[in-house]
Amino acid sequence: MGVLDLTAAWPVDNVAAAIMQGAVVRERVGPTNQQFRVASLAKPVSAWAMLVAVEEGIIGLDSPVGQPGCTLRHLMAHAGGYPFNGHEPIAPVERTRTYSNGGIELAADAISAAAEMPFAEYLDAAVLTPLGMHDSELFGSPAHRLRTSVDDLVTFMGETRTPTLIAAATAAEAHQTQYPALSGIVPGVGRFERCPWGLGFEIRGDKQPHWTGSNNAPGTYGHFGGAGTMMWRDPATDVSVIALTDRPFDEWASTALQRWPELSDAALAAYGGGAP
């Protein structure tokens, strides 16, 4: 019996998933080359393109974007004071961790203006094509309108582990907590006094309960999406899990917040002991 056999009990019509140990895929289940709508898993992928733009020198992480005092870094880390949806600020910069699709959209607009091309084209040129992510396409908001496959996200998570498009130091910053004092809400999960976030990636920290496993290390980074999707990498064990479904999260949220941690802990137990 494989770890991914656990997905058979999920209340969804279709699921595709993979477990990686280091750079090696140890298990796959379902149609891993099929395109799924992945909702907010778009954010880390879009963020990687933003970091390419930073390294190209067309914009800086600390360039002003948005309300006074706000920077690209603030927006990528959900610290810019923007609402869940919308482009008008609702709080001062760096006051709280306000999870914001609008903030990510403003960040993408700044990249688009600097690159003089639509963000979807920049994402394709900067990330999707170079990595061979041929199942992937952005069809709207860079915050939540990405279609992609497990196989493509295996490639992407491998890129976050061993970056080829950006420098290792830049990649490390994406996975490190920005503005660590901020509290905030992880939508659908809860409010946390310490709500760590990197640049486009949620950081596990000591959040409890959480959508990752109880045994995931605090440095685990990833994201989950309202389309019933999730992915994470635990640098302490070098294990990654990707799972895509076709049922919206809010239709099975309480079950997902049981099944995803169960799968995560099983993956860590099976593959967290070292490289294959």
Could you provide a short overview of the structure?
This protein has helices at residues 42-56, 72-76, 101-115, 119-131, 150-161, 168-174, 253-271, and strands at 15-21, 24-29, 36-37, 137-138, 146-148, 184-186, 190-192, 202-203, 221-225, 229-234, 239-245. The protein is of the alpha+beta class.
Features:
276 residues, alpha+beta, Beta-lactamase, 7 helices, 11 strands
Number of separate structural domains = 1
Principal-axis shape: globular
CATH topology: Beta-lactamase
β-strand amount: 15-25%
Q: Runs with pLDDT <50, length 5+?
A: none
Order of strands across the biggest sheet?
2-1-11-10-9-8
Q: What is the β-strand count?
A: 11
Based on helices, strands and strand pairing, what is the structural class? alpha+beta
Gap from first CA to last CA: 18 Å
